[in-house]
Amino acid sequence: MRVELQRICKHFGPVKANDGISLLLEEGKIYGLLGENGAGKSTLMKILSGYQPPDSGEILVDGQPVLFDSPATALTSGVGMLYQDPLDMPPFRVIDNYLLGRDNRLPLNYKKAAAELQDLSTRYDFEINVNAFVDTLSMGERQQLELVRQLAGGAEVLILDEPTTGISAEQQKLLFDSMRKLAQEEGKTLILVSHKLDEIQELCTHAFILRQGQLVGESEVPCLNENLVRMMFGQVPAKSERPYFELGEPVLEVENLNAGDYRLKIEDINLSVQAGEVFGLAGLEGSGQRRLIQACAGLIQPNSGRIKLAGEDISGWSYHRRQSAGVAYVAAGRLEEGLVDDLSLTEHLVLAQPEHSFLIDWDGARQEMERRIAHYQIVGRPDSTAGELSGGNQQRLLFALLDSPLKLLLFEHPTRGLDVRSTNYIWDLFYQRREQGTAILFLSADLDEIIERSDRIAVFSGGRMSRIVSANETSVDELGHLIGGQQ
Amino acid sequence: MKFRQSPSIGWTLTRQQALLWAWPIVPVIAALLFTAGLLVIFDTSPAVAVQAMYQGAMGEASNRLSVVAFWVPLMLASTGLLVTFRAGLWNIGIEGQIILGAIGASWVALRIDAPAPILIAIELIVAMAAGAIWALFVALLKTRGHVHEIFGGLALNSLAVILTNYLISGPWQPAEGGSFRGTAPFPDKALLPLLSESRFAPLSLLFAMVAFALVVIALRGTFWGLKLKALGKNAYSSFLLGVSSKREIILAMMFCGALAGLGGAVRTLSWFDSLRQSISGGIGFTALLVVMLANYNMWLVPFIALFFSGVLQGGITLQLRTQLHSSLGGILTGVMVLFVLLFSDPRKLGITDTKMVSDHGPPEVRGQPLDPFGRDIPEGD
Amino acid sequence: MDDSELIRFLASIVLAATPLIIAVCGETITERSGVVNLSLDGTMLMAAMLGFIVALETNNVWLGFLAGAGIGAFFALIVAFGNIRLGASMVAVGFVLTLLGDDLSAFLGQNYTRIPGPSIIRGSIPILKDIPILGPIFFDQDIVVYFSFVLVGVTWYFLNRTQPGLHLRSAGERPEAAFARGVHVNHVRYLYTIVGGALVGIAGASYSLNVKIGWAEGATRGLGWIALAIVIFGGWSPIGGAMGALLFAATRSLVTVLQKSYPEVPATVFLALPWILMIAVLVLAGSGSLQRLVTFLPRSVQPAMSRILRVQPPAALGTTFEEN
After folding, report:
1. How far is B221 from chain A (nearest CA, A)?
2. ipTM for this model
3. Tally of domains in chain B
4. How many A×B Cβ pairs under 8 Å?
5. Residue C103 is assigned to a structural domain of this protein
6. In principle, which of A212, B76, C80, C303 could form an S-S bond with C193, CB 3.0–4.6 Å?
7. Higher pLDDT pick, B339 / B182
8. Which domain holds residue C28?
């Protein structure tokens, strides 16, 4: 089945997410779709898979123009997509999840469905328990289920969006094997959307590169990484020099910490972060780094073990008490977990102040907010609402709201979804903080960022922490191994 | 508001633009038409009904004073609700809080002896405390028991009514035997001084105005008010910013409960002279409607409350004159709120003055899921 | 109380629980699709009034039920339409409709209070009614009661074993994923909100036509709110809901019995019991204690029991789904 995209355009307000993109996809091949965050990959694939309509342009299947009004329609035409967060039904059983939308008869035919499921899963060496509940499955298993479901639904073209985030090494091998089998033995067309160059090199035959909404290049794969990088970024981005910094006394000490519940437990965590140090936590989502940061923030209480702040045992302290002692926590979801959509910047500032009088001095607050807007280069006014700011500016706002000086700064995904310029600026802000003696503990999904920016690194896998490595003595490969669970 | 310039005449309004400008009135007029329709079905001329209601509300001085007397506890309850709504709470339990305030005042009136001004002061303080405590129960059920405040409020409303009936037919019954209408009448010095022949106590008007001023200042100018606003919009983010959700929920509810209790005291010490079965008169639920109709805008509340008082008082006269059930007043106010809730955004009905270029984005889910267990309150406090 | 009295007492509980069971099934369907219909109390009042009046005027009980279903569907439609199309808050609209239902039913029914009316003919089911103990309690009733039994089973089967049931549940759990599967989320929500509302209307009518014949102002007041609480307590399952309804009906009937047995205890205590029970039940459901109880069971049944006793609202309950 040949699929062609012709001059696809899509804009969201003034932003051109897809600007006249044309692609040709032939059967039996595995294509890579590359581009940095915000390049338009997700938007394009959502259009191809039927999740949203394009503003203009056409999709042709075997030469015929088609119109998809939902992913289900696209699947009947043979186009399926595996989302990074699989669009499945967590409280349903596997078999019910498989059957949803499958046929239109009234009663559900469990026998037939179970047989189909078993048949397909053995073909790709997947192990699927049809009566398990979806929310008990690991990410890799949920992916396998989605893959099988789409194939059963008649998918000839399969799009996989960042499939390797959050799955184990064995599951990745199974996935890649199944992808090769689908392309080479069954003549299906696969599109791998990823920003991990080594995966693209390993699996794909051909790569498309998007930048700022346009198709800027194509390449046969494997090829030199620099070629791909140059097309993705325009030039090889210069790595900023990490200045040498004299570290101080330990600010955060975690001793034999056990925390978490039946969903995810972290065990035997020992680390310390010194004043002025940047400590990075790496690992797949759901491995426990976030639990550690939340435990340090006081959002979850330890089951056993201790947490010390500048020598004092704060294990039993509440979140707010730690906040007033100089601990700051910034969560991953900017609007859901840190900012309030409808409140103005000034209102956020007033709320974030450690000291406050009974009556609010609105004029004084507004002036202070103007100062901070200038200092942090936020695009916005004191009366703009947080929801009106762009992602990069929301992150700057979160920085602007932090107290000074801080003892400990806990940060989740500081540059997720940000462009290169904003990322560099945010890290400049971090380094300013470290000069004040703040200890910084952060987590990120970007291994490059972790190696480049941290002094020391620890990797989480399955709720446990690896040995602590020094950033300038390790490599992305070694971190990758540690993530996979190997010591 | 834009006008399209027409070269010859000067300005012309397109029909769309005029409709948009006048829109806020439309649901109100629709509600009036609906109620008029109801009347016609019941063989009553709407004109007669309007006249009866007008007379009932404004006809004589005593009627006008009755409207004001009803307006005071309604204002107290409504201003209290402004605080709880700001915090994102549905304080359905306000009826019970009003009743408890009345019970508290009645207890002092019947059991405590003191010279008049002091006695009244004690009654009011006890009433506010009683209302606040009743609201505290709802708040604790929410923060500790994970029971949504709607259910907690309902249960406590019913318990308050049961308690009232028990007191009326039991320990506080009138000397000549239980009448199930009310308790023994209070001594004169326990009552609020009334204006001439009416059931209106001018002192209570002062309470309402002071309460309103306090709430306006609290919500717009204090740190506490800002905390409530953040809490109501996003409980988790405000928690991370330093707002203790549990504490603020409790404080907001108690504040509202105190004002509601004060309203209950005013009812039982001026409008009535004893604790009665229907002491709250539905004022709590009416207050909820007032604030909803005002779209939570505090400046509109006094006027809407006054209007509602007029309509509800007028409804009573309507029943006397036309044999129509007094619930007509409640119907008019209810339909008005319903239509305003449904039809306040003209764009949703396809009436706009600009060509809508719809952003065909992906489908999205809006709004916070309703957690009946109130587990949206962050833990770890 | 001797045996036959006890049996009649238990049978009366089943009869009294019927409106609740029907209403709870209806609202369970609605909430599983993601919509909260807070207008239940007002709807049941309107349906009770309208059902009685129509049955009286046409001398046909079934038309009365139809009228009840109609008004129930209409109120539910207002809630759904108000939210999906007009962007109004489900809670606000539902609440106003509850108050309106109270006033409207009092107003429209003012000429029909305290009039006797037609009622359902009783009929026992042969064979089944001869089962010792259970027979006379459950199977010597009337058709509305039998309808409620069937409704619970049908609702359960529909929700858990049919394709449309999967559509319904997916709309309330994860609308964006449901959309991706080809489910028309908002159509589903409209449909099942209306169906649920119609059932609530039937429940209201069944009160004034079956349980306590006739209309009086505020006849069913409170039942709607209790139904909403039972939906929660029943874990959004029709079977759990039916059990909750029986529990509540039992409490209310028990109140009258206890009253007679212990006349010295003031009536207040007994009147307060159902409300205290409602609170206790909600606290229990929300506290996860039921979950903790599961750990005491043998390992093999734990996963299954954990699921059954898990009281989780549909994840997308109360949200609006915008299909752009």
Report:
1. 5
2. 0.88
3. 1
4. 82
5. yes
6. C80
7. B339
8. 3-220
